[in-house]
Design goal:
Chain lengths: 490, 265
């Protein structure tokens, strides 16, 4: 039975349970809903929840566990002599699964009947050819042991799913019956539903947290793998970034310092552009602009935040780069060799960050109480004196937070760097030279055809980890600053 | 503090510091103040009393043009400070506010140290020749604000860390530091407890020696305690204005009598 139908059946059972629970509670109270402990719909939900929740939990667990179980059963079936040198049990199992899938699809298309799929023997008929004719992808010749395993795989899987369907429906019915039995006028259905909603929210929150932990762990373990292959001191203190692309490793220089330098340099240029412009724009919008101008200008500024970064990258590559080259290039001042440079990427990234800084700062400046401004005006201060000496100091923790948030955006930015700053890892002070950042190198290390177990690919995880630690530190500092000064300014 | 003591005290006539002549204030279409005529005397505490929304705070804010910061507010008529119209085009509202200081309902110290709070006005107006001079102004102002003894050992700690009553006295010291001629106070005690209120009231009485003080208050007892002149506002009209003792013991207008005896409010 397809999963979709199974889910639909459980939902129908739950819906019927809802109606039954409602009417049973009402009947128990003699038709007078005021006699009930909870509103009638709560009794319905109680039944529906007890039908659905255990069943869906069972389905999820079953769907996770069954492939593991089937794999272990089938891989035990494969005789050791079938596994070639240089291959592994895992590869053969992949072959088995592919063959089983092929058989499934071929049956579904009507190319072969169920009988043939179950009993065909590779030494009598050319099953691989039949499968290929049916448009299925089979890499190598399907040998008899593989075919046997695939057939067995199909049968075990199908039985498993059948049992699962039956158990699920039974469980849904049992839940419904149990809930209906406890439905009485004084049953506290409202509290049960409250508990259910509580559990739902806790579940959602823990999925979010667990995913983060999972991502972090995968980063940590892969970084660990990398440091087993490549000395950590060379990674952290190496001044040279020159991965060999042969995929064999050994001759690569994987020093992170040039990349970190590029990241910081480009981020600093970007912040030098974004912070003053964004902050001044925020001050104008919140303190000087009339409501009419504000209502037009603020959304316009925020549109900047909605532009995909790849578009900024194109802007850097096609407009800003050539423009800078005209002024600073060989025809001009002669400082710049090509359009891709720290300056190009930094300027464009700065433009990208303006709305972050301005929008956040604007909200923070608006949150400074009017009483502060009144107090300053009441002492005979002008508007700019008030802003400089009272409003900005009061808003400073928030503004610093906004700037650090923009900084972590800048450090994590990729596309603008790839298109605007070039790909050469270099330690240089000249902002008109091409450099590259940690993020851009993660992309280039993982998009090549290097083996995922080689240090050239694994270094991406170490780079990601470095980046993660950096932005985490920035965020912690931002939070610390905001917390430390917030109490003072209330 | 006895409510009757001030009423019995004689009110010697002082020269006029500020005068309002036929003042009307509009908030958009609302006519908030209607034809108000008031003379505020030098070295006198003048109290504005009246029910909520009667326009007394609005009128107070006209006296140092704080209403300029509100777009929809429009003021007509003349308000004179030392005989000069403060709504004249030649008058710089920023400069005016240095002469007519203001203390607000809620204590609003700046997020700065106590010292910097008081030094704020003198600094922007360039009142101090050097650091020692500024130190002296700060100390004098804090003494006048009757808070020097409590904060002299922690001038560099933030002003927002003080208690409510201390904050309000700090704000008064801050207003005094710019050497204003008139001090406007908009319900300065409404956010304070009775003890802090008593301290601030005592302070107001002392300030009378050097300044003309105008105080808006909801508390009739407070008006009776601290003021020599009282103005009663009702629905945007100035109903009655006269010596405090007379307003509270022998009001001319029946509305004043109703209000101070608690029948309207």
């Amino acid at each position: 039975m397809p999963l979709f139908w199974l889910i639909l059946i459980v939902l129908v059972i739950a819906a019927v349970g809802y109606m039954l629970g409602r009417s049973r509670a009402l009947a128990n109270a003699g038709g007078d809903s005021r006699e009930l402990h909870s509103l009638p719909s709560y009794y319905g939900w109680n039944v529906a929840l007890k039908a659905m929740v255990p069943t869906f939990v069972l389905l999820i667990v079953w769907l996770l566990v069954q492939p593991l179980y089937v794999n272990s059963v089938i891989s035990g079936m494969i005789p050791a002599n079938v596994i070639d040198d240089g291959s592994s049990r895992g590869l053969v199992m992949a072959e088995v699964r592919r063959a089983a899938n092929g058989l499934d699809n071929a049956v579904a298309q009507g190319v072969m009947d169920e009988e043939f799929a179950r009993n065909a023997r590779a030494d009598f008929t050319d099953v691989s050819q039949v499968l290929k004719d049916a448009g299925q992808i089979v890499t190598t010749e399907v040998t008899q042991p593989v075919l046997r395993a695939a057939q067995r795989y199909r049968i075990v899987n199908a039985t498993g799913y059948q049992i699962m369907s039956i158990v699920a429906v039974v469980l849904a019915l049992a839940g419904t019956l149990f809930a209906l039995r406890e439905t009485r006028a004084l049953f506290r259905a409202r509290n049960v539903v409250e508990l259910g909603i509580h559990a739902l929210l806790v579940g959602a929150a823990s999925i979010a947290v667990l995913t983060t932990v999972g991502i972090l762990l995968s980063l940590v373990f892969n970084t660990w793998e990398f440091f087993k292959l490549y000395p950590a001191s060379d990674f952290f203190f190496g001044l040279n970034w020159a991965p060999s692309f042969s995929g064999r490793g050994g001759s690569s220089d994987l020093g992170v310092l040039p990349l970190l330098w590029g990241t910081f340099y480009i981020s600093i240029v970007a912040l030098a552009v974004a912070v003053p412009i964004g902050l001044f724009a925020a001050i104008y919008l919140s303190e000087y602009a009339s409501p009419r101008i504000r209502s037009i200008a603020k959304p316009l500024l925020e549109i900047l935040a909605g532009i995909p970064t790849i578009v900024y990258g194109l802007f850097a590559l096609l407009t800003v780069g050539p423009l800078l080259l005209k002024v600073f290039g060989n025809e001009g001042l002669g400082w710049m060799q090509a359009g891709t440079a720290v300056m190009t990427a930094g300027l464009v990234m700065g433009i990208m960050l303006i709305p972050f800084v301005s929008s956040l700062s604007d909200d923070i400046i608006n949150a400074v109480p009017q009483a502060m401004r009144d107090g300053s005006y009441g002492l005979g201060a002008t508007q700019s004196e008030t802003i400089r000496q009272v409003v900005i100091p009061a808003a400073l923790p928030g503004i610093v937070g906004a700037i650090l948030l923009a900084a972590s955006r800048a450090i994590g930015e990729t596309m603008i760097v790839v298109l605007g700053a070039g790909a050469a890892a270099r330690l240089s002070l000249n902002p008109f030279e091409a450099m590259t950042t940690v993020t851009a190198k993660i992309v280039s290390q993982l998009t090549g055809d290097a083996d995922f177990a080689s240090p050239e690919a694994l270094v991406a995880f170490a780079l990601g980890m470095t980046l993660f630690v950096l932005t985490l530190c920035l965020n912690i500092i931002a939070l610390y600053i905001v917390r430390k000064y917030r109490e003072q300014y209330e | 503090m006895n409510d009757m003591t001030v009423m019995d005290s004689t009110v010697e006539a002082q020269r006029t510091k500020m005068a309002a002549q036929n003042v009307n204030v509009y908030y958009g279409d609302t006519h908030a103040i209607k034809d108000v005529n008031v003379e505020i005397e030098d070295k006198t505490v003048t109290a504005f009393i009246g029910p909520s929304g009667c326009g007394k705070s609005t009128f107070l804010r006209c006296l140092n043009r704080m209403n300029d910061t509100i777009d929809i507010c429009r003021v007509t008529g003349d308000i004179l400070l030392e005989g000069e119209d403060i709504y004249d085009k030649r008058v710089d509202p920023v400069q005016l506010r240095a002469q007519v200081g203001m203390v607000f309902q809620k204590p609003n110290p700046f997020p700065k140290s106590i010292y910097d709070n008081v030094a704020y006005g003198p600094r922007i107006h360039g009142l101090a020749k050097n650091k020692a001079d500024l130190d002296e102004i700060v100390e004098r102002s804090l003494r006048r604000g009757a808070i020097w003894d409590e904060v002299k050992d922690r001038l560099q700690s933030p002003g927002t860390g003080l208690s409510g009553g201390q904050q309000q006295r700090l704000c008064i010291a801050r207003a005094v530091a710019t050497e204003p001629e008139v001090l406007l106070m908009d319900e300065p005690c409404s956010a304070l407890d009775p003890i802090a209120t008593a301290q601030v009231e005592e302070l107001i009485d002392e300030l009378r020696e050097s300044y003309s003080v105008v105080i808006v208050t909801h508390s009739m007892q407070q008006a009776a305690r601290v003021s020599q002149k009282t103005a009663f506002f009702h629905l945007g009209n100035l109903v009655e204005f006269g010596p405090t003792g007379q307003i509270f013991t022998n009001p001319e207008d029946p509305r004043t009598e109703s209000y101070i005896t608690g029948r309207i409010g």
